[in-house]
Amino acid sequence: MTTNTRERIMEAARLTxxxxxxxxxxxxxxxKEVGIKSASIHYYFPTKGELVAAIMRSxxxxxxxxxxxxxxxxxxxxxLMDQYTDMFRRTLLNGNRMCLAGxxxxxRNELPEDVRAEVVRWGEMNERWLAGVLASEDDADAGxxxxxxxxxxxxVSGAQMIAHGRNxxxxxxxxxxxxxxxxxxx
Length: 186
Prior knowledge:
9 helices, mainly alpha
């Protein structure tokens, strides 16, 4: 077995969880999709919780690097916020999937503690990045930027949930446009 097998397992699991949630993930079905035996998945990930925690860590790292790279490019707030909202939009365009952490948040009470911790870490990473973008305004107060960042994160996540429920990316676009028009998003 190779690292490639581990990555294939994680990618297939991520897509499944983004579509069906934690309880929709079955090692047996995952093994069929990846083309291996179910016992092989247990070789890499003894439990479903360990697998989902690993895909959450990878998800966070990938998106944090993406967002940090955007900010390092020195673009203005408007461009950064466009890229941020487009990140959530692209997830919808991939089979009407939800953000991994957003999907898992709905099942929070049933998740293993290590998965819950990663879901919280996702939110904290988003809020920290958004606060940095919002605090770059000349007159922005750091405390105000943190509060506004949480509101922006909740708003964008909610817009994605509405669009997902309707299976309609245009609904996401309409909500995001309304947020921009109201001044919630720069």
